[in-house]
Amino acid sequence: FGSYDTRIERLDFGGTEGRFNYMIDGTHFSTGGYRRHSAAKRDNVRAKFSYSLGKDSSLTLLLNGENQPFAEDPSGLTKAQIRQDPRQAVPNVFQFGAGESHRDRQVGLVYEQQVGDDDHLHATAYSGTRRVIQFLPFSGASLNGGGAVVDLKDRTFGGDARWVHEFSLAGAPADVIAGVQYDRLVEERKGWVNDDGSIGDLRRNERDTSTQTGEYAQVEGKPDNWVIMAGIRHS
Questions:
Q1: Which residues, including other chains, have CB under 8 Å from residue 135's CB and lie 6 or more apart?
Q2: Between 148 and which of 23, 136, 166, 179 could a Cys-Cys bridge form, CB atoms 3.0 to 4.6 Å apart?
Q3: Strand order through the sheet with 149-169
Q4: What is the pLDDT of residue 55?
């Protein structure tokens, strides 16, 4: 508990049952805000579930979620306004309902395999979604503008696979790492007129995509108290 109606509640637990290991963490945060029109709430959940497939391999599931149902935006102040009242909010934020809400979901899978005494395989895959709605403190009604109610929907997915080999270099421990990576983002972006805190006419409607592939290799040596690395990457 803290000033300005600030509160954090957290619960986490975990354990091991045979080959299965788990950990779950949940947090709730809320505040009335130091400044007027700056209240916010946020909930987070994180979880990790691991299963041993045998002596030399394991599979891990990772989950991460966040909900921010609202976060009021008091907007920026001039130096004169701060001297007058540092807790005030810009008048427009009340007229246009300035603030943001968002929701994030992510899931990941990790596979690890020890191959002999010196080689290790590591593979990951992930996927996620994000939704953001933001009301800016102006109308955004210009015909060639992007609006002042921002609506974003993101979808991401990708993965990485790499091989690690441990060896000795001039009597010092060393690793060589080689791998490939793939990532993709698809975003739907819309912008609406902010009609005094309500969604007005559509001003922006676009779909953006970004894709990346990469190959990389790295050598790392550890003589005495030093770490020396050399690497190359192509994207």
A1: 73, 96, 97, 98, 99, 100, 148, 149, 194, 197
A2: 136
A3: 7-17, 20-31, 40-54, 57-72, 99-115, 119-135, 149-169, 172-195, 198-221, 228-234
A4: 83
Distance CA 59, CA 100 (A): 37
Collapse the DSSP code of 111 into the 3-class scheme (helix H, G, I; strand E, B; otherwise coil) and give the result.
Answer: strand
Q: How far apart are CA 29 and CA 39, in angstroms?
A: 11
Q: HSE-up of 88 (CA within 13 Å, CB side)?
A: 13
Residues 222 and 174: beta-carbon distance below 8 Å: yes
Tell me the residue ranges of DSSP E strands in 73-197. Answer: 99-115, 119-135, 149-169, 172-195
**Nearest Cα to 72, choosing from 4, 130, 147?**
4
Digit-coded pLDDT (tens) for 190-202 = 999 999 999 999 9
pLDDT tens string 90-110: 999 999 999 999 999 999 999
pLDDT digits (tens, 9 = 90+) for 213-223: 999 999 999 88
Q: Residue 157 in contact with residue 126, Cβ under 8 Å?
A: yes
**Helix residue ranges, H only, the chain:** 79-84, 92-96
